[in-house]
Amino acid sequence: MREIWSDARKFQIWLEIELLAVEAMAELGQIPKKDSEEIRKRARFSIPDIAEIEKRTNHDVIAFLENVAASVGPTARWIHQGLTSSDILDTTLSVQLNGSIDILAEDLKKLRNVIAAEARRFKMTPMIGRSHGVHAEPITFGLKLALMFDEFGRAEERLAQTRQRIRVGKLSGAVGTHAHVDPRVERAVCEKLGLKQARLSTQIVQRDRHAEFMTTLAVIASSVDRWATEFRHLQRTEVLEVEEFFGEGQKGSSAMPHKRNPITSERLSGLARVIRGNAVVALENVALWHERDISHSSAERIILPDSCILLDYMLDKLRDVVERLQVYPERMRQNLALTKGLYFSQSILLALTRAGVDRKTAYEAVQRAAMKTWKGEGTFAENVKAEPEIAAKLSPTEIDRLCSLDAHFQHVDATFRALGLE
Fold first, then answer.
1. Does residue 285 share a domain with residue 148?
2. Rounded to the nearest 5°, which phi and psi values hold at 293?
3. Does 253 qualify as catalytic in the annotation?
4. pLDDT above 90 for 37
5. Are residues 119 and 212 in the same domain?
6. H/E element holding 108?
7. What mean pLDDT do residues 406-421 have?
8. What is the rounded distance in angstroms from the CA atom of residue 372 to the CA atom of residue 364?
9. pLDDT tens-digit profile of 109-120?
């Protein structure tokens, strides 16, 4: 990813665009073909020389063109014919973003493969589900990971969709009218670069495209944050159902030798904030003056490479977290037992309504049994059996059947099949 955004790669794409444009003009008979061949053969650039020229010109593209022209000689007059700087800059940017998407798509694929393996491994490992941070009803750790697998599947879809709108180049001149450059040149160059020709542009490719790209990255980063936060909560001492891998010789605190902290997940949550902030900048870049101003350019030189590099790193680190996650099924069972079966309350409630009890009466009877359990007066099943209104409708055997995990996990196999995890 770093190489895509390096100066060397940037200037190489700039040069290739200029050369492809010259060759397209030659094919159309607009310039001598032998000159285009000579330009292709002789054209070179020097990054230090470009930097030195730019000190004088205060213009990066002009500095580049001067440097290339020095290597080419008289035929360099055909280079940049009818073009403007943004023709080169924006088309290059599309190439770089497209290359970045290739890497991010591969990152997502690898991440989902790891998640899928872990989801299958813990498919039927019971744990408590939580809403508002409070014990709700049983789930399995495999289901939790299957949800993660599905979420990053949508990330793959979003990235593929935004690729179609960001994979656009333009060589249409100073205000996009092709006044001095044949539209066929633009088409030929874009095709050879693997880009689509913009149907219409101004001096630039319109920035709603780049805003969509950045917001897509921000949504993916937020999904990373969501699961990093999940693992952080599950690692809390009071919960401790999973734990980040803690290596030999690793240290958790300069003051407290006992500490084993979820530092990677915390790092991922922090970096997600950076990408979300960058997405706001990209949205601000959409509103430009008339056919172009330059207010977007300086910001994009930071937010686009930084966000691509950051997300590449984050997806790699999240994969590592999942792959080496320490999972504690016994602790999950202990936490399930904490409320003495309170999570079976809905099973009893529904059984009562099916037996003919009105919902209000049933709810209040189950709640009375639940509140006794909260106060430490026996298990939920015992208290349910002691409620006259419940005992009148449900036998002790039926209550015991309802207070089991079987009903909660009866659809796990079907869910995994629907997600392609079987």
1. yes
2. -125, -175
3. yes
4. yes
5. yes
6. helix 85-121
7. 95
8. 12
9. 999 999 999 999
Shared domain check, 233 and 289: yes
Collapse the DSSP code of 55 into the 3-class scheme (helix H, G, I; strand E, B; otherwise coil) and give the result: helix
Q: Structural domain of residue 34, as residue ranges?
A: 7-80
Catalytic residue among 132, 258, 290, 298: 132
* CB-based contacts of 77, cutoff 8 Å, min separation 6: none
CATH number at residue 227: 1.20.200.10
| pLDDT digit string, tens, across residues 376-388 | 999 999 999 999 9
Residues 93-122: b if buried by 16+ CB within 10 A, e if exposed: bbbbbbbbbebbeebbeebbebbbebbeeb
Q: Say yes or no: 206 and 286 in one domain.
A: yes
- At 363, list the tokens: 């709810």
Give dist(CA 80, CA 316) in Å, integer: 40
Same domain, 353 and 301: no
Same domain, 271 and 374: no
Catalytic residue among 59, 180, 253, 295: 253
Which tokens sit at 309? Answer: 């590099």
Q: What is the CATH number of the domain that holds 356?
A: 1.10.40.30
pLDDT digits (tens, 9 = 90+) for 214-258: 999 999 999 999 999 999 999 999 999 999 998 888 888 788 888
**Half-sphere exposure in the Cβ direction for 161 (13 Å, CA):** 11
Task: Give backbone dihedrals phi and psi of 347, rounded to 5 degrees, phi first.
Answer: -60, -40
Question: Tell me, what's the pLDDT at 259?
Answer: 85
Residue 150: inside a domain: yes
Assess whether 269 carries a catalytic annotation.
Answer: no
Phi/psi class of residue 135: alpha, beta or left (left: φ > 0; alpha: ψ in -120 to 50)? beta
